[in-house]
Amino acid sequence: MAVLKLAQSQILKLMTIKPTASVLPCLNSVRFRKPRWVPKAASKEFYVREPTPIDPVEYEELKWRYQEYRNTVEAIRMHLAAEIDKKEAVEMSKQVDTEAGWDKMVELTEEWNKETAVKREKRQAEEDLIELETQKQIEKEKEEEMMKMLTKAEQRLQFEKKQTFITMENLDEEIEKILDVRMDYEYSIDRSGNVLKGNQTAKFRPRRYDK
After folding, report:
1. Tens digits of per-residue pLDDT, 107-134?
2. Could you tell me which residues are beta bridge partners of residue 188?
3. Within 10 Å of residue 174's Cβ, how many Cβ atoms?
4. Does 210 score more than 70 pLDDT?
5. How far, in Å, CA of 87 to CA of 80, rounded?
6. Distance (Å, whole) CA 10 – CA 3
């Protein structure tokens, strides 16, 4: 008896609680279906459903309204199809215009590139010509400077040669200088590099040793 009262109290407590997913996580609603081998119930074995009675006035009204509905839906459908076709035609024309504009832009760009290439080649030719002329001018100035240096060197060499050349005018004078020059081959050099001349060095006679 006490167990039955406890069970009833627990059932009442569960009935007061709102069924939630946390409270009743394992409860699932299952529709009952009888097996296929179970025969039809005796109360429904000879049951024949009577057709729903149709009001003729209501039937004619619904028939008219349904035909109007179908016509309206068809008209709306055709209108939408026409609008879509028109939009596609506009988009196609825009695309054609865009392609034509793109082709025009490409053509203009190619013409501009050709003009720019001609101007660039002309400018490059002028710059090459100026650079060539500048290079020739620099080489010419170098050659002139080299010729000046060679001329100065040749003049200096000629001047130095004139100082030591023997000509018919200074032949006698040079002969006298040569005759007056005394050459002393009897000299010695000390460790410091001083030259010790000996113009009057006595002749050396080797001694004789008796056998």
Report:
1. 888 889 999 999 999 999 999 999 999 9
2. 196
3. 13
4. no
5. 10
6. 11
